[in-house]
């Protein structure tokens, strides 16, 4: 074999031909241009027709829609308070039993929800990055700062539908509403007496059952 013949054979082996993998790959890439790739069920998103919010699955969309319809299909069998999700009822029931399984390792304070414990743990740190521009007081959480600011602005965004009274904090509105509904969701495990506020139950247990 001459030197020119050798180079000719090598060029034939290294030059892509019609039907070779290189050509087929190029051809396949051209065919897929402009097509929408089909997503796996786990990758599909579901959008709310009311506000456009996108959620990961249909079950999450059903729950989200209740924020618009105000539907609350899950009710507490003790006090009748209704919720959008079944899990919320389970957590709510702990206020009736005073069950607080989440305990702070630093001070021993207990909570009925893990999220409340995690927030509480931050109070043991010196990280208070949210500062009031009016008085200079600092807070660990932005939500606490927002509530505090209302003491300066006198803003009261929560209004009672029964009597029209306005308050600055949502939890205060919940407590106020019980003066109309006579709901007493906090029950003493020792004597069975019920109270409208958790603070009142705690005071009752300390005064009446302290020696037990």
Automatic annotation (TrEMBL):
PROSITE patterns on file: ZINC_FINGER_C2H2_1, ZINC_FINGER_C2H2_2
Matches recorded under InterPro entries: C2H2-ZF_Transcription_Reg, Znf_C2H2_sf, Znf_C2H2_type
Gene3D superfamilies hit by this protein: Classic Zinc Finger
Annotated keywords: Metal-binding, Nucleus, Repeat, Zinc, Zinc-finger
One Gene Ontology CC term in the entry: nucleus
GO MF terms held by the record: DNA-binding transcription factor activity, RNA polymerase II-specific; RNA polymerase II transcription regulatory region sequence-specific DNA binding; zinc ion binding
The C2H2-type domain, residue ranges: 46-73, 74-101, 102-129, 130-157, 158-185, 186-212
Location within or outside the cell: Nucleus
Main location: nucleus
Keyword Repeat part of the UniProt annotation: yes
One Pfam family from the record: zf-C2H2
SUPFAM superfamilies per UniProt: beta-beta-alpha zinc fingers (SSF57667)
Origin superkingdom: Eukaryota
Cross-referenced PANTHER family: ODD-SKIPPED - RELATED, ZINC FINGER PROTEIN 208-LIKE
Name of the protein: C2H2-type domain-containing protein
Gene source species: Patiria miniata (Bat star)
Lineage: Eukaryota, Metazoa, Echinodermata, Eleutherozoa, Asterozoa
């Amino acid at each position: 074999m001459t030197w020119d013949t050798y180079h000719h054979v090598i060029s034939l082996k290294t030059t892509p031909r019609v039907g070779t993998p290189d050509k087929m790959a190029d051809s396949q890439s051209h065919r897929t241009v402009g097509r929408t790739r089909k997503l796996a069920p786990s990758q599909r998103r579901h959008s709310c027709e009311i506000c456009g919010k996108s959620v990961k699955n249909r079950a999450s969309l059903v729950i989200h829609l209740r924020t618009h319809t105000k539907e609350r299909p899950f009710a507490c069998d003790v006090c009748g308070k209704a919720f959008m999700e079944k899990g919320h009822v389970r957590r709510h029931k702990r206020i009736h039993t005073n069950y607080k399984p989440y305990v702070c390792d630093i001070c021993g304070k207990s909570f009925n929800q893990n999220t409340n414990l995690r927030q509480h743990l931050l109070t043991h740190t010196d990280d208070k990055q949210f500062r009031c521009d009016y008085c200079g007081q600092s807070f660990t959480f932005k939500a606490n700062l927002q509530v505090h600011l209302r003491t300066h602005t006198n803003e009261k965004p929560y209004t009672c539908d029964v009597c029209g009274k306005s308050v600055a904090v949502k939890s205060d509105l919940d407590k106020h509403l019980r003066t109309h509904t006579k709901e007493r969701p906090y029950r003493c495990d020792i004597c069975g007496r019920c109270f409208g506020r958790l603070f009142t139950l705690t005071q009752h247990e300390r005064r009446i059952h302290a020696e037990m």
